[in-house]
Amino acid sequence: MHRLAAISIVCVGVIGLTGCSTNPTVQLDNLRERFVAAGGVCSDWGPIDAPLAPAAKTCAEGAALVVFESTEDRADFIKSELETNEQIRARTHVILSNDTWLVLDTLASIVRVMPALGGMISGRNGANP
To answer: Residue 55 domain-assigned?
Structure first.
């Protein structure tokens, strides 16, 4: 019991010293780790230009991972993607998003990772932000 309490104190101390990262690059790395752990595939990735997003990368296998500074920026980005993205318009890809991140990938991939990642699906026949 004392060992558990000591571990808890150390963990709280480390969290208190480091805090939650607001660094977009770290947030994007964390999103990629969670995406892969949930069953997504992202063996290699590179930067993409994503308006309103401080960090965005696309995986070699096709998924796009994006983080935002606000839910408003995320909502604006999703609205634009729903109107202009040809893969979404063709109904082959959808968006899984939460407050300040999103993943754009095939419907099969999003259905596989959603239980672990949480979030809301947006697509041509899905919910809107």
So the answer is: yes
